[in-house]
Design brief:
Layout: H1 27-40, H2 48-52, H3 54-69, H4 82-87, H5 93-113, H6 121-164, E1 171-172, E2 175-182, E3 193-200, E4 203-211, H7 215-232, H8 239-257, E5 269-277, E6 282-288, E7 294-297, E8 300-303, E9 326-329, E10 335-339, H9 341-344, H10 356-360, H11 368-383, E11 391-398
Antiparallel strand pairs: 1-2, 2-11, 3-4, 4-5, 5-6, 6-9, 7-8, 7-10, 10-11
Helix pairs in contact: 3-5, 5-6, 7-8
Length: about 425
Amino acid sequence: MTRSPLPLFRAGAGRPKRPVAEWGTGGGRARDAWHLSFAHGGPWAGGGVLARSAVPVTLITVITLAATFAPVAVHLSPLLVAAPTSTAAFAGSRFTAGTALAASGAMFVIDRHDGLLHSPLLPLHIAALLVVSVFVVAARSLHDRDLRELTQVRAVAEVAQRVLLRPLPRRLGPLLVACTYRAAAAHALVGGDLYAAARTGRATRFLIGDVRGKGLPAIEDASALLGAFREAAYQHAALPELAAALEVSVRRHLTQLTESDPESGERFITALLVEIPDEAALVQVISCGHPSPLRGRRGKVAALPIPRPAPPLGLAGISPDSYHVDTFAFGPADTLLLYTDGVVEARSTAGIFYPILERASGWPWDCPHSLLRRVNDDVDLHAEGHLEDDLALVAIRRTPAMGSGQGPRPSQPHHPTEVDP
């Protein structure tokens, strides 16, 4: 098993449960945005000063009225310290300082009512309130500064992660495409899973993969493979040549890491390469230790049989002869689902893995967007929203009208195989 935060790309669909790679709306990003909004002023921030004043004004008013009706010997003015301290939880430092001044005025009124105007208790009460307020305002100011820095860091990190894992176009030639990514790590948009696509003449090539490991090393490995694919996809006519080129790139990347990370030699990447010609009703697949894709065709769903998968990238061969191309029928209205093992390894509370083939027959295979939404919701239902591994999905559907792009015809399989019905 390979291991490396539903946010979805515009081309994808789903209902996220964690803050993950989402360039749309909802899910984790909405939740993080709410937390940031709360820190800057909370749910009351949008209502202006009057809405934010509700809590401190209510506290000051209630305490002042209670002191008016309480016996003179009972001094309630020290309770006013609750006004600035509670305000600091959802308002900025300036608003908190204003609340502290208002509470000081109310304290003067209460102590005067209690006959403490000429007593040493009055300046002590006010001084204690102001001292506490100074500490609260200072703490809030530091919090606001840290929050601004955190917001900037998150914005930069989000841009960097978007560059790493770009959203796929909704349409590539005659293909409708949807994709989604969910990182298991909190506050992460990407992890060790990856996907990419490239239009090469009159064909479209896809890559989906899963890096062994997690955290920053997994992201680094994913970045290396994505960069290699985005360049090599246009340089090699045959799919086995592309696979061999990616193996060379991954090996070089891991070799360069050996000096700083001795365990880098144990890392690898499972990958699936897919090529779909525009004008031929077929799909060519090379598997490097990756789960087989599912195909929805004529009302039936099945996993594409791949009898001779190559080892994962990093452990495979550097010769095109090391890779076997499997060719399958893929005509108009057929749909292909590529996924990483984060889907099939999602467990229920009873420890049961997600039965993807059993569930697949009930999914809406006529729309990639709806298909990914259903898969995400079903996985969440099975695992109760607790994913232990990253999850990536790409749905591809050939439209009834074949594309008519310009360019050289797609390459023939390096190892020709029979096209199944």
